[in-house]
Amino acid sequence: MTTTVKVPNSARQLQALWQSLNYALSSIFDAHGVCAAVAYEIAIHTGLTTVVSISDPQRQYYDVWVCHSNGETEQTRWEDKKATFESILSAGRAIRLDKFERPPAELLKSELWQLPRESILAVPIPYPDSYNPSTPPGAICLIDPTPNSILTEQTLEPLASNVTVFLDRAYLRHQTDRQDVEFAVVSDISYTLTSTLSLPTIFKQLTGTVRRTLNVEELSVGLREPNGDIEFVKMVMGNRFQDMPPIRLKQGQGIAGWVAENRQPVIINDTYADDRFYSNVDKLSGFQTKSMICIPLQVEDRIIGVLQAINKQTGKFTQHDLRLLQAIGGSLAAAIENARLHQDVIAEKRRIETIFSSMSEGMLTTTADGVITHANDALLSLLQARTTSLVQQNAREIVQLKKSEFSDFAQKVRHAKGEFPQLAADLRQTDGNYVPVLISGAPVQHQDGQINEVIFVFSDLRQIREVERMRDDFFHGIVHELRTPLATILMYARLLREGKAQQKEKQDRFLGVIERESDRLQQMVRQMLQLAKQEARELQRSSEPVNVNGFFDEMLPAMADQATEKGLIFRQRIQPNLPDVMVNPDTLHLIFKNLVENAIKFTMSGTVR
User: What integer pLDDT is reported at residue 311 of this predicted model?
Assistant: First the structure.
């Protein structure tokens, strides 16, 4: 005999609701879709108007789905104060509320209590359970439930717990999708920021993508100066700030100054309630700063500035926003530092190139393998090169020496430790001639000790050798000139010793010649001493007032005697009352003496003027 168990109709209806609801929710991964499906399935199976609500994370409003018994669904949004779900949420369980037992003030302002005639059967979601749900607060409400309704306080709670699972799945899926999007955005921003060395391009990236990602009204970047002050980059900020004077904060001033000094990020959702906030910028611009996140921009142990996200468009700033901004800030700090270093390197490169090009000595740089990287115009002129560039050519082929190999000297330079080798050699020019040069070399090393470049300096010795030749000729001339007064002095001294000048007049004349030639010899010795001082860099360059007329009165009579003795006519015309001049007397005497003596020496006959 078979026994048939009769299942109550309400149980079958409840089972059908569960099955239909689970089937509908199994393929829905959107929280709003879950709420709409729950409202529809409950309304269809119970024949009651059903309200499902979910708040935003900041509890400022509720998204609400109202589904009537015929399946028609309305989606709306209620402000938190007008929704009046507090009594349902605080109950923590399924609860039946009678409309006429509610306070009159609640009924007047409530959007929810406009729907029932008598009562509401409600349960909070997420339903309290053993795990920490991701779903924000909300409720499931049945409007005017009947005594024979399939959903009661006892059956509504398991249903709410089941709905919570699907809502949590949807919110976790949303969080995962959002994190994937944010990770992709941060990765893209990081790549974009670090792939350019232009500060304007870097700042331009912040004005679009980052602002949209953070959903904020404004972004600002403040760069810290050496004295600790912070100047904000106006091109990052909105149009209202573009015509303002530079926005600067003193060291430690405002929230930005505090963050830079203390190296700590801050989240402030009411800036005017914070004593650190500096409101003068708002007063000058007309902008109102309501909330902000401010983080330090740090490179190694240095704070180079701050990054601020200002005025969250929806809700309040959270720790999630802070982590997102910090992820962007790390890449931004590195990008700004790299761009600044690049600017410094370019400026230094241009400075060195200017010095390199303007040097009078030949300059050559090569790689460690001897390939030419730079050669200035002075070296091209020294080589008499027919090309305007030697770059990428092998230095061994360009620099050819008469009695040695340039490659041997280059190797010596590369292996020099703390020394700067030099080589005196004859450099071959393109026309086959040789020019004497002094080559100096020095390696340029990386921090790891590897040689990056080698610098060579070519000093032209032709002028030095010409000066040496002139000096030798001068000394030969001096020696020759010394012989004449010495021979004259010696001759007249012997004549006097031998008694060849008995008359006093003749003796006086002989003594006069000896005295004059001695003076001449003394002047020559003085001239040689002056030259020796110049050679040793000991010539005193101090100036003093010199009476020009007195100077010529003292110097020219001796010159006139020399001209007369040679049979020349010596004429001088010096203007009276010439002003004093500031000059070294010895140098002035040496210059004019050489000029006049050379004129007398090389004038065979006639007049010296």
Answer: 92
Answer whether residue 3 shows pLDDT above 60.
no
Please classify residue 47 by burial: count the beta carbons closer than 10 Å to its beta carbon, then call 0-12 exposed, 13-18 middle and 19+ buried. Answer: middle
Indicate the Cα dihedral angle 168, 173, 177, 179, nearest 10°.
50
User: Residue 55 is encoded by which pair of tokens?
Assistant: 């708040």
Q: Where are the beta strands (DSSP E) in 230-341?
A: 230-232, 248-249, 266-268, 292-299, 302-312
Identical fold, 359-456 and 540-609 = no
Q: Tell me which CATH code domain 540-609 carries.
A: 3.30.565.10
Class of domain 461-538: mainly alpha
The arithmetic mean of pLDDT across residues 430-437, rounded, is 89
Bridge partners for 75 per DSSP: 65
- CATH no. for 359-456: 3.30.450.20
Of 121, 55, 113, the C-alpha closest to 84 is: 113
Whether the model pTM is above 0.85? no
pLDDT at 6 over 50: no
3-state helix/strand/coil string of 195-231? CCCCHHHHHHHHHHHHHHHHCEEEEEEEEECCCCCEE
Superfamily of domain 196-344: GAF domain (3.30.450.40)
Task: Report the half-sphere exposure of 442 (CA within 13 A, side-chain side).
Answer: 7
Structure tokens belonging to residue 548: 């020009």
Note the pLDDT tens digit of each residue in 230-266.
Answer: 999 887 777 777 778 888 999 999 999 999 999 999 9
* Pair 337, 304: CB distance under 8 Å: yes
Domain boundaries, the chain: 9-170, 196-344, 359-456, 461-538, 540-609
Distance CA 45, CA 300 (A): 64
In the prediction, which pLDDT does 540 show?
Answer: 52
3-class secondary structure, 387: coil
Ramachandran assignment for 197, one of left (phi > 0), alpha (psi -120 to 50 degrees), beta (any other): alpha
Burial category of 360 from C-beta neighbours within 10 Å (exposed 0-12, middle 13-18, buried 19 and up): exposed
**Encoded amino acid at 276, one letter:** R
Superfamily of domain 9-170: GAF domain (3.30.450.40)
State the Cα angle at 533 between 530 and 535, rounded to 5°.
110
Structure tokens at 81: 């104060």
The enclosing H or E element of 456 equals: strand 451-460
